[in-house]
């Protein structure tokens, strides 16, 4: 079926089923206006979440949840199986996306720095080239956004319930659930906020599914009747790898707090670090929201407190509570992706709009016994990257070439017919979207995590090729090497095995070459 008839069918279906009088005249106007200005450059909708791992996306093979709307994008476009972040933490990943540069080059090595918004970013360059640009939702870069005609962002990490937003004009407060509100604000801008004679860039950036994984009112009881499968490495003993793995503070067993993370309201038993905080969302809720929350968690908490499991059974209980809340947040994200896609269809915009779904890094969903991210290991190193680009991304294409978040900016500039500035270090992903891999495409991705502090993950750098991964914990002079074909779950470093000596040497050379290529300061 041609794209045109598909769109029309969806449109008729929508128009028949749902009352959407708002879209018709206005969308027709905006399309006409764009055409009359000779406007053929595609619009860009960039949907970016916080900590959404590929293990929780249907199109990536999830066995723990379903994401029909993200999956739709994948069917109608291309899905990247090997897309990686350059530094698995929020602000640095976002800065890399905006600037097309690694952390040392854009200055955002950790969450603690303030983003230098004076450097070239893709929104800024698109805007200079005539795009209308908007940013809604999570930002987390401390400095005010630059390069946007319109922005409305969560302060810092933001809140799930009844969130505040910052705008150029000051602070606004909304009642409701952040994922819905962020989408509402994005839709408002699409409908009435933009100059419809220009192509647009919309960055719709959700807080979800970030810690403390607070589900919205509509998803509080989703998964109540099921047991989510456990990852095979939930009870990892960290043998055969760096001793540093045991020292991190992000275990399901010992570093989730009962009230704060696990929603056992009122249970003040400390975690392994002696912390016993209250859940920050609970006190933000309206009485009605809190009543729904209590109705969902209350009886289960009572059952838990009356008959508390121990040992491995307790870990299993914590895993179920954690993963269900995470997946409930994801379910709301997916619903809201659907709302945006429906609007683009109904407004006649889908045929000339690139839609990307991605997230700032992956996350441990119990693998290695962990939550959080930061490590170069696959689950938090990988990023989802799903792109529907009519006429460019061949529907159903699976891309296995090595992609990285520094490629996003050059890709979006390419879409607008712009050359990336010389200082951008990534490359446009466009040539990969029909399944071909250019012969000069990168053979290794460079990674560098710099933060010291929360969760106690050591600084490290590394390189990943199609088959291998070399990791250097340079503060303590430890190395790891993984053979991802033999050991996809990274349970055994082969760095010291004689059979891998030549591979280790080759990868060290590759790491040095990447350091030179990206002008990384000597370690
Ligand atoms: C917060 C979280 C951490 C998380 C960091 C970074 N703690 O500090 O668990 O690792 O953010 O996340 S919380 O109790 O405040 O939720 S990031 O995605 O923003 O980099
Ligand atoms: Ca994040």
Automatic annotation (TrEMBL):
SUPFAM superfamilies: Alkaline phosphatase-like. The keyword Hydrolase applies. It comes from the Bacteria. One of its GO terms (molecular function) is hydrolase activity. PROSITE patterns: SULFATASE_1, SULFATASE_2, TAT. Residues 366-516 form the N-sulphoglucosamine sulphohydrolase C-terminal domain. It holds the Pfam family SGSH_C. Belongs to the sulfatase family. This is Sulfatase.
